[in-house]
Design a protein that fits this description.
The complex is a heterodimer of chains A (about 550) and B (about 70).
Chain A lengths: L8 H20 L4 H19 L4 H34 L2 H12 L3 H19 L4 H12 L4 H12 L6 H13 L5 H55 L3 H21 L1 H4 L15 H11 L6 H4 L1 H15 L1 H7 L3 E6 L2 E2 L5 E2 L2 E8 L4 H18 L2 H8 L5 H29 L1 H12 L2 H19 L2 H18 L4 H14 L5 H10 L6 H28 L1
Antiparallel strand pairs in A: 1-4, 2-3
Helix pairs in contact in A: 1-2, 1-19, 1-24, 2-18, 3-6, 3-16, 3-18, 4-12, 5-6, 5-7, 5-8, 5-9, 5-10, 6-7, 6-23, 7-9, 7-23, 7-24, 8-10, 8-21, 9-10, 9-22, 9-24, 14-15, 14-16, 18-23, 19-20, 19-21, 20-21, 20-22, 20-24, 21-22, 22-24
Chain B lengths: L2 H25 L2 H30 L6 H7 L2
Classes of the chains: A mainly alpha (about 550), B mainly alpha (about 70).
Chain lengths: ~550, ~70
């Protein structure tokens, strides 16, 4: 049965209303995401019931599926917070802050190294919000202001979404549509992702210290982006599945020679730094070193992240381990539902099953438990308690996880209500009906952006919209590879502004409720990058 | 009610709704199904309701809502 959703202007505006309300509450009125999210959800439900002929049964199933989708993300948030709190309560971040100053004396280099290069590497191996949840507290530890500590990895990791996590989004797109020209689609996607990569690096430098920071960081940005974006572009011709992982790993290794270059080994020239706390990381670290010795060395301070990388790579790169651990899947069944506009969702025995033991949350949990055991055996918790009296690990985790969890649950249930009521299709079809072919080529990435904004997932955005994009490309006689590439790039970029991703960072940096302030940093930058992607999509078509 | 308590309660209510909705929908047991939705709606309504009550306590200060104002600041 073909869905027959209304695409008139009134319904299009109605479908846009709950997203606009959510953004207005978050960004305009600066409401906390725990308050704005449920209001957005209620608005989406009311609009579905009144204007999209959605029965209460359909809404209920959509809400149930949204909660299940959220559990997938919550299983990253809770263990990521646990990892952070375990490290923090053992004094690892204090030691990291002091120790890192011996590695490089250049704050801008460190911010780019953590916020761009390490975040991209983590997206390549783990994904699902791990880069934000892990890197934001690391940036906080080296003296980055909390709002920037969240905004920086959001901008830094976005490009790695499509081919990251062993190309899960690319594989999912191949499952939902029959891609006629896979090589052309892959390389055009890689070209557009390169734009997100290099502008991501530039955006981070801009946030750090405007034009002077960009000038200082330019050689590093060009070298890393050539490896990230250029490497990925070259590798997709050979194997898209490992293209991002290899590029991300080489870039991570490249940090060592860069850190020995005098330009990035020594403090940068005087500039108005926006992103760091007033007492610079260096002076604060030196002060702290005078007041007390760090409880551990730099190696032990980074131990949780080394364990995380080791555990993740062991599972990903050894097929026997992956297949054994991947055998256990969890899922819930749901009944079939439909709407008055024939939006039909089949009954399912196992909705969106996920393999618990190969989920990144399990890697984070394993890293947390191992780190806790090692830190405890070495007496770091007691040593740090003598210097500072921190809260319990449970309090530290729940203070961040409760607000983040309620926000994610609200956003994702809103997204599934949107999908099951046909509002998502109304929005996308409305854009395609109202725009001429080249206009649509420009707008294709905005559709992907919208999908990722709603679901905080490049994969979900492509699953939702790739079929539609393919159909419109056919109807408007546009080349399919360029349109799917636009969709995929938009889906990747949308992760920089997805509220559920923002919450991952605010939750792990102790600034829950400041999501609007983070979005005010990433939203204008992301929209500007989306405009660039739209223009390059047109160029790809003309060429 | 403290904000953290409300968020913890909202989180538990959301999670409680999932098995009720899933089993209710598959087994076609309407009471489970709608109970699940009700539980989620209550959970989702808690944080905005706290904000509304804090706003009201700040707008119309009185002896009675003094305890609310204290809770809002926690």
């Amino acid at each position: 049965m073909e869905a027959n959703v209304p695409t008139d202007f009134f319904h299009w505006i109605a479908a846009l209303a709950s997203i606009a309300l959510l953004l207005f509450l978050l960004v305009g009125l600066r409401w906390k995401s725990t308050e704005a999210g449920p209001v957005g959800l209620f608005a989406a439900v009311i609009i579905s019931l009144l204007l999209f002929r959605t029965p209460l049964e359909t809404i209920t199933v959509a809400v149930g599926k949204g909660i299940w989708d959220s559990i997938f993300i919550l299983y990253v948030i809770w263990p990521a917070l646990l990892l952070y709190v375990v490290a923090d309560r053992a004094g690892a971040f204090d030691s990291l802050r002091i120790g890192i100053t011996r590695f490089s004396k250049n704050d801008l280099f460190l911010v780019l190294a953590f916020g761009w290069v390490f975040a991209s590497f983590l997206q390549g191996i783990a994904g699902f919000g791990v880069p934000i949840a892990v890197v934001a507290p690391l940036l906080l530890a080296i003296g980055v202001k909390p709002i920037f500590a969240v905004a920086i990895p959001l901008m830094g990791h976005a490009w790695a979404n499509m081919f990251g996590t062993i190309a899960v989004s690319w594989l999912a797109t191949n499952q939902v549509i029959d891609i006629a020209e896979p090589v052309a689609t892959a390389w055009q996607t890689a070209v557009l992702l390169w734009i997100i990569n290099i502008t991501g690096g530039l955006a981070i430098a801009w946030m750090y210290g405007r034009g002077r920071a960009i000038r200082h960081a330019m050689p590093m940005i060009l070298i890393i982006s050539l490896i990230h974006g250029g490497g990925q572009l070259a590798l997709v011709f050979w194997n898209p599945v490992v293209s991002n992982f290899i590029a991300g790993t080489i870039a991570l290794l490249m940090l060592y020679p860069l850190s020995t270059w005098k330009r990035y080994d020594q403090p940068h020239e005087e500039m108005a730094v926006q992103a760091m706390t007033e007492a610079s990381v260096r002076s604060s670290a030196e002060r702290e070193q005078r007041s007390h010795e760090p409880v551990m060395g730099l190696g032990m301070a980074t131990f949780p992240y080394i364990v995380l990388t080791f555990v993740t790579l062991s599972v990903l790169l050894i097929p026997a381990i992956e297949s054994a651990l991947g055998a256990f899947e969890a899922a819930f069944p749901f009944a079939e539902v439909t709407t008055g506009y024939d939006v039909f969702r089949e009954a399912t025995e196992a909705y969106s099953p996920f393999a618990v033991f190969t989920h990144p949350g399990t890697f984070l949990l394993a890293a947390s438990v191992i780190s806790w055991a090692v830190y405890r055996s070495k007496g770091y918790f007691k040593a740090w308690t003598r210097i500072k009296a921190p809260d319990s690990i449970w309090k530290g985790v729940t203070d961040g996880a409760f607000p983040a969890s309620v926000a994610v649950l609200s956003f994702l249930t809103m997204a599934t209500v949107f999908d099951h009521s046909g509002q998502t299709q109304t929005l996308a079809l409305g854009i395609s009906a109202a725009t001429p072919p080249m206009g649509y080529a420009f707008a294709a990435n905005f559709v992907g952006l919208l999908g990722a904004f709603m679901t905080s997932s490049n994969t979900a955005s492509n699953v939702l919209f790739s079929g539609l994009q393919q159909n419109v490309a056919l109807l408007q006689n546009l080349p399919e590879p360029s349109i799917i590439a636009g969709q995929s790039a938009g889906g990747a970029l949308g992760n920089a502004i997805a509220p559920a991703n923002v919450v991952l960072g605010t939750g792990t940096t102790g600034i829950s409720g400041k999501e609007g302030a983070v979005l005010r940093k990433t939203l204008p930058l992301s929209l500007a990058i989306a405009v660039m992607i739209g223009l390059v999509t047109i160029i790809l078509i003309i060429l | 009610m403290k904000s953290k308590t409300a968020l913890g309660l909202a989180f538990i209510l959301f999670l409680l709704g999932l098995p009720l909705i899933s089993w209710g929908s598959v087994q076609e047991i309407d009471i489970l199904y709608y109970l699940g939705l009700l539980v989620v709606v209550i959970g989702a309504a808690l944080p905005p309701a706290i904000r509304l009550s804090c706003w009201a306590a700040g707008t119309w200060p009185s002896e009675q809502n003094a305890s609310w104002r204290r809770a809002c600041n926690q």
